[in-house]
Amino acid sequence: MTGQLDLYGVFLPGLSALALGAYGLFRMMTSLFTRIGLYRAVWHPSLFNLALYVTLVSGLSAILNWLQT
C-alpha cells in the first residue's frame, strides 16, 4: 500500500479513510452508550468522546497494519 487512496483521480491520505471509518464506529458507540446510560457515570463527556475517537482511529490503524504484514 502506498499510503494514499485514489478517489476518482484525487489522492487522499490513507488516514482519512481510517478516520471516516472510526467516525462511523464512534457514532454507533455513542448512541449505544447513551441508550445504556453510560454518560451518567462519565465525568466529562466531551473528553470521553475525544479519547474514544482517538482510540478507535489508532485501533483501526493497528489492525490494518497487522493485516498487511
From TrEMBL:
<dbReference type="Pfam" id="PF07869">
    <property type="entry name" value="DUF1656"/>
</dbReference>
<feature type="transmembrane region" description="Helical">
    <location>
        <begin position="6"/>
        <end position="26"/>
    </location>
</feature>
<keyword id="KW-1133">Transmembrane helix</keyword>
<dbReference type="InterPro" id="IPR012451">
    <property type="entry name" value="DUF1656"/>
</dbReference>
<protein>
    <submittedName>
        <fullName>DUF1656 domain-containing protein</fullName>
    </submittedName>
</protein>
<keyword id="KW-0812">Transmembrane</keyword>
<feature type="transmembrane region" description="Helical">
    <location>
        <begin position="47"/>
        <end position="67"/>
    </location>
</feature>
<keyword id="KW-1003">Cell membrane</keyword>
<keyword id="KW-0472">Membrane</keyword>
